[in-house]
# Entry
Amino acid sequence: MTAYGVLRSEWVKFRSVRAMLGCLAGAVVAAGSYGYLFGTAAAREYFNASAADRAAFDPTETAFRALVLVGVLVSAVGVLAVTSEYAAGTMPVSITAVPGRGLLLLGKGAVVALTTLLAGPPLALLSFTLSQAALAARGVPSAGLGDPGVPGALLGAGLFTGLIGLYGMALGFLLRRSAGAVSLGTFLLILPGTASLFPKPVAEWIVTWWPSAAGARILAVHPGTELLAPLAGTGVLAATVLVLLCAAVAVFRRRDA
# Structure
């Protein structure tokens, strides 16, 4: 089978999985609802803050926070692209049709990456719009789409979700079970949110270098200097995904279907 044939086949399989569409629909709902809720919470904090903190208030700080939670569903999309075949028992058929397992994995990865990459900016736009609407409705300073750094963060969201989709796909190949891969993927993605439970040096390392936290730096409109720069953080996430994909290739080539 040609590379084009593999891509076409993988796209047909991808869009035929109902749970996949459910995850993408859930991502839209999560981006909108959490974006609005984070904006509402930021408005309450603004009114309870001191004059100095109000002067330093950054309305974009919560604009894309929902994307980290949305990443859980995006990761599940990558997982299901693989585990749905194992669950249905069709993976041996796919391997027979495409003897080159590397080509099969590459085709599946291309479909997952393109879909999740294209989904990122609209999801980020939804989160941004509703979070800023929640701030403006309460008389709190808000940001606009034309503000410096906002367009770049919107585009960066595509890179973030694309990498997270491939991260989920790699876990799917490594574990072959939807429940296990989604559970492990979720735990690893949200670990930075529990950083305060750890000793301070460990917590600081997690919020700086943990792949999901580092990758989310590309969503920062005003990055500051206390954490990794956006491109450096994205590099950490991309390197982690690359390692997982290499492990997935090695395991997929040696293991029975």
Q: What stands out?
A: The chain is about 75% helix and 0% strand. The first helix runs from residue 3 to 16.
